[in-house]
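Example record

One chain of 155 residues, shown exactly as stored in the release files.
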Amino acid sequence: MDIKATRFYDGLDIWHMEVVGPSYNPSEKHTLNNLKKTLRINILNLIVILWDYLDCEVKLAVKIRVFSTQSINNQLTLYALSMLPDGHFLVTELARATIPFSFNARSQYKAVLRMMAIFYDEMIKQEALIEKINKSVLRTKETKVRDVLRVPELE
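Predicted structure tokens for this chain:
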């Protein structure tokens, strides 16, 4: 992990960035290993967040996401990871941009700015979702996060 963002009020990691090797020619093996590491980090970060919401209905919890940006060569990719109702995890690409390294390619910065706007909008949605979950009474008869993650209730 090269850069991370931690939510101030609960200290949980909600975004990180992984830069794969040198910008001119990262090896395929190094790239794949970084991708695996990034996915593992995202899954663990999401589970840590979900741990605070074990009694939340799964239909709400599946909207909770963690985010990551992967930088390979001159490509930036923003993606989100969330949990599916069956406990599997889903990675969704939200945006991709080429980092311009020359003056003539400066128009490509629009894609980078667009990616930043998408990330900002997603963070606002996540904050609203967490606020909604925190305000709700979590005594549901529906499937809960606890059931999907197979965490037993304390007696």
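Notes: The longest strand covers residues 89-98.
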